[in-house]
Every structure is written in C-alpha cells, then in structure tokens.
Write a structure and sequence with these properties.
The protein has 598 residues and is mainly α. The protein is built from 25 helices and seven strands. This is GtrA family protein.
C-alpha cells in the first residue's frame, strides 16, 4: 500500500515536510540560545568528537586515529570513523572561512550538522511511513518522529557523536528497501546505506544483519519479485564496504582485524555476504528453485561462519569480555546508556515508560496484524527491525534509540487509519479513540508520564538542587580556571577527561573509552590508593594539576570504593604537602597544582 505514490511529487512534499519540522526544532533551539554548546550535559562523546575534528583540521593524518592528549604518554587509538569527522570538519572549515573566526565556525558546525541529520532522518522516516501505510501516514510520521527524535536528544546542537548518523543511515536503508519494488536501484542505495552505517560504528551490526537476512529470505520466498532487489542490495553493500575499507583504513593496517571498528574483519564478511547474495540472485542454477535458493544461502551462511571462526575468532566473544574487572565494576557497570531493561526496572522503573512504551505498542500492533492475516513484505522488514532493536534495547538502553525510531512507522500507519475513520464518521467515540491513538504514539507523552511517576515515587523530593550551580561539572564555564593554567597533564576522573581536552590545552589520563585501558587504570590507581601512591604516579608521569569534581557521580563511586584513598582524602580536606590549592574552595571543580612539577 502506498508504493504507487512514491513519485517525484511525493518525494518533494516529504522533503519539504521534513524540512519544516527540522526548522521548527532549529528555531526552538535558537530561542533557547543553543545552550548545549556551553553545557554538554555530561556527553563526553560529543566533546571528544569535537576534539577529534579539531585535530584533523590542525593537520593530524587522515588514517591517524590516535588521541594523543588522553591516556598514557603517546595516547591511544580511538575506534571512531573518519566518515563522521570529515563532514563536520568541512562545515567548520567553510564556516570559519566565511566568518573569519574558527570558534564561530566550530559553533556553526555543531549547530548545522545535527540539524541536517534531523532533516534527513525525518525525510527517510516519512518515506518509510509512506511505503508502509500510504500517504496518510506521512504527516503523523513527521510529527511523532520529530517529537521522539527531539526528546531523545541525539539531534541537539553539539550532538557530534555518531549515533545520529547511524540512525539516519539505518532508517534510509529501511525506507529504500521498502520502496525498492517500485523504484529502480533503490535496493542498491539501501545496500550502500547499510554498509555506511556499519562502517561508522559496530553498534548497528544487529540491524544491518537483520536487513540483509530479510533481503535474503524475501528472495527465497518470492524470487520473481525480489531477485533484482537482492542482487542490487548485495552489490551496493559489498561495493561500498570495499570503498570504505580502502579510504578509511591505512594500507599498513589492512591485515589487522579490529572487532570494535571497521577493519579487514568487517570488510571480508561484508564483501563475502554482499557479493555472495548478488551472485546467488544472478545465477539461475542457484536461484532456480526453492530448494536451490535455500541451499545456496545456507552455504553462504556456513562460509561466513567458517571465515569468522577461523580468521577472526576474537570477534565472537562479548564486546567487553576482555575488559579489566576494575573498569567493569567502576566504569562500565555505571554507564547510563549501557544499563539493561531489567536493571532499569529495579533502579529507575519510571524511565522504562519513556524508553520502551512506544516500541512495545508498535510490536503489539504488528502482532495483531500478523494474527489477522494479510501479511506483506513491508510488515516483515519493519517487524524484524523493530523486534531486534527492542531486544538490543532490553540488553542496553542505548538500543531504544533505534526501537523508538522504527516504532514510528507502524504507529504512523495506525494513526492514519483512525484519521481516515474519523473523517467519515461524526462519532464522538471515534474522535476520542483517534486522540488516544495520538497520545499513545507520541514518545514525549510517555516521557512526561515517566517524569510524573518519578516524582511520585520520590514523594516530592526535589529532583535537582543548587539551581544554576554546576555540581557535576558539565558546563564550559566551569573549566575556565583550568583552561587559564599553563598546559600540562591533568589527573582527574574519566567523566572529566573529554571536557578537559575540549575546554583547555591540557592532556588527561582518564576518559570513558574502552580502548583507554592503561590511562583509566592509572587514574584509578592514583585516586583509590594512598596519597603516597598518588604522588609516585604524579611524579612518574609529570602531572601538573589534580582536578576534583566533588559532585560528580564517578567521584562518589570512587570514594565509596576507597574511603581512605587519595581522592576521599582530598574531599575531606586532607591535602598533602606536595599539592597547592588553586583558587577558592567551594566551586564545582577543585584544582590543585603539583608543587615543583616538572
């Protein structure tokens, strides 16, 4: 339903509607003063991405992904992709040239890049909704999609992290695949987007695998209608994977497998999977009968399994299986977006409604559709992605970003159905049901319910104290005194690592990144050990400043872990004689200069 409408006129109207919604969000952020540019809200990834872009513009090599100012001397290699750095750097460079100001150019990039991504994501959401539920689903998709994306926060000014790019590309891959039967080469572009989102980060591997599996199974079930789609998708996927590999991976690292970033491991799997699917769909002996199609795809699956098991067995283990137990206990287990649904049910049940309600409603809608019969290829694609994303979200709450987005497609079709009924009926009951359907489908409504429930559970306890005081050290102005000091190495908690780099010229040991094992462990050794242990580390690594944020949750975790440790002593006012307090005590950050520091 709706595929016949996907012409140039609908394409333009969907683009304009998405633009209007994106401009509305932009105007609201402008009215609020783009506050996220000076208050990152504790999002280290956005700040470190800004640092990475600055380093690229300052001349750091395209293939050189070292973060030299974090970790032990020499830094460590980040696992992020230059595919995200490049467009942000291009916008910042162009804006700097036009305005004559590098800081203003950076601000333009931090505002414009997320806004462009919101526009494109809304556009592809509208296209997916049109293919799934007809033209009547477009406006609801724009409205509930814009509301959901806005309150998720990944398109806020300053949102330079790659999750918004991944969501846009994944939604694009889905939308193009939904309309592939009616649009020539749409499947080729869908494969291209699937390969790109995988290249940006491994978080989308479950969704890319789901899309590829759906393409293969649809080809098995309907070879006449899906053969060209499977062939084009496979070619696009394999071709772009090869292009990304040679343009983003240094030739000297072509033989090095990385499990957390696009490398030879991901390239080989993508090339075999994409080219194999295209070959099976193109060769008559492999696609001539149901048995042959099943056998050919099974052989391809076995070949992929053997390749991974033999060549890249390390990538079969859990993502953080080799992480140091101390880092797991004191860092990973406290990452907000890494919590599971079951953990939230115990620790923060009110938040469950905000993150899981609309995807669950959408899954119920698809289950009811399956029960009534009339199942379509669109239903298979949307349901598969929705269920997988919900499962990922149950494992880690960060996955709900995708399940909330995928839920927009069936929810918008649901709204469209009730809008059509309301237009032909003057019944009050139909009008009330339409209103209820709208409310249930809008994610911020559930966010409000969660907030109200949270207040009720806390029995009126104040949610925040201190007003404008930056107790958790998340605002740019908080780091001004540190930025005014001569550049040196700063000993601080991992939550402050990225702000230190973004707001000053200093370097820091700790930062919340799983590859920075040595730097994070060194900071833990210093803060959890005695003052003498800390002094030995400070002298050995030429630390010039110790920075403490008493109100940050990580500080509280470490002081509970070692109540007699160096960090806990500083909070009690026990300052060793080799440290000299800087400025007045009582601010968000307490600074201590190392006496006679080299």
């Amino acid at each position: 339903m709706g595929t016949a409408e996907n012409g140039a006129a609908t394409w333009k109207s969907d683009l304009v509607l998405a633009l209007l919604a994106a401009l509305l969000g932009f105007a609201f952020n402008a009215w609020a003063g783009f506050g996220q540019l000076t208050d990152a809200g504790g999002d280290n990834d956005n700040l470190l991405r800004l640092v990475e872009v600055r380093d690229l513009l300052a001349g750091q090599g395209w293939f050189d992904l070292h973060q030299y100012r974090m970790g032990l001397e020499g830094g460590f290699v980040m696992h992020w992709s230059r595919l995200v750095d490049a467009p942000i750097a291009a916008i910042a460079l162009a804006a700097s040239a036009l305005t004559g100001s590098r800081p203003l150019g950076e601000d333009v990039a931090q505002v414009l890049w997320p806004a462009l991504l919101l526009w494109s994501t809304l556009f592809f959401t509208a296209r997916a909704a049109r293919s799934f539920g007809g033209g009547g689903a477009v406006l609801p998709a724009i409205l509930i999609g814009a509301a959901g994306y806005y309150f998720i926060g990944i398109y806020d000014p300053g949102a330079l992290d790659h999750h918004n790019v991944q969501l846009m590309l994944t939604m694009a891959s889905l939308a193009l695949l939904l309309e592939a039967p009616a649009r020539h080469r749409a499947a080729l572009w869908s494969g291209l987007c699937a390969a790109l989102t995988l290249a940006v980060g491994m978080e989308t591997a479950p969704y890319v695998a789901t899309i590829g599996l759906c393409v293969a199974l649809l080809f098995v079930a309907d070879p006449n209608g899906e053969r060209a789609i499977a062939r084009d998708f496979g070619l696009g996927f394999a071709g772009v994977a090869a292009l990304v590999f040679v343009t983003t991976v240094s030739p000297s690292a072509w033989g090095v497998a990385q499990c957390d970033a696009f490398s030879v491991a991901q390239f080989v799997v993508a090339a075999i999977a994409g080219a194999g699917l295209a070959a099976i769909a193109s060769v008559e002996p492999a696609a001539g009968s149901l048995r042959r199609r099943l056998a050919s795809l099974a052989a391809l699956g076995v070949a992929l399994g053997v390749v991974v098991a033999v060549l890249f067995p390390q990538c079969l283990s859990a993502p953080y299986a080799s992480l140091d137990p101390r880092l797991k206990e004191l860092w990973l287990d406290h990452i907000d977006e890494a919590q599971s649904l079951f953990t939230l049910l115990v620790r923060d049940p009110a938040r469950v409604a905000a993150r899981y309600a609309t995807p669950l409603v959408a899954i119920i809608l698809m289950a009811l559709r399956l029960r009534r019969g009339g199942w379509r290829r669109q239903d298979s694609l949307v349901t598969a992605l929705l269920v997988v994303a919900f499962a990922v979200g149950a494992w880690q709450v960060r996955g709900t970003t995708f399940s909330i987005a995928f839920a927009v497609v069936p929810l918008s079709a649901w709204i469209a159905k009730w809008r059509a009924r309301a237009e032909t009926s003057s019944s009050l009951g139909v009008a009330l049901r339409l209103a209820a359907v709208w409310l249930v489908s809008i994610n911020p409504v559930w966010t409000g319910v969660a907030a109200a429930a949270s207040v009720a559970l806390e029995k009126g306890k104040a949610v925040a104290e201190g007003g404008a005081v930056d107790k958790t050290c998340e605002k740019k102005v908080t780091f001004a005194p540190l930025g005014a000091m001569a550049d040196t190495t700063v000993l601080t908690i991992s939550n402050l690592g990225a702000p230190v780099l973004a707001y000053s010229g200093h370097r820091a040991f700790a930062g919340p990144y799983h590859r920075n094992v040595a730097g994070n462990l060194l900071a833990l050794d210093a803060f959890l050990g005695s003052a003498d242990d800390a002094r030995a580390i400070v002298e050995a690594h030429r630390v010039g400043v110790v920075a403490v944020c008493p109100g940050n949750v990580e500080t509280l975790i470490l002081t509970r872990k070692a109540p007699q440790g160096f960090l806990a002593g500083l909070l009690r006012g026990s300052v060793p004689d080799w440290l000299e307090p800087v400025g007045e005590k009582g601010g968000p950050i307490e600074l201590y200069r190392v006496r006679q520091a080299g």
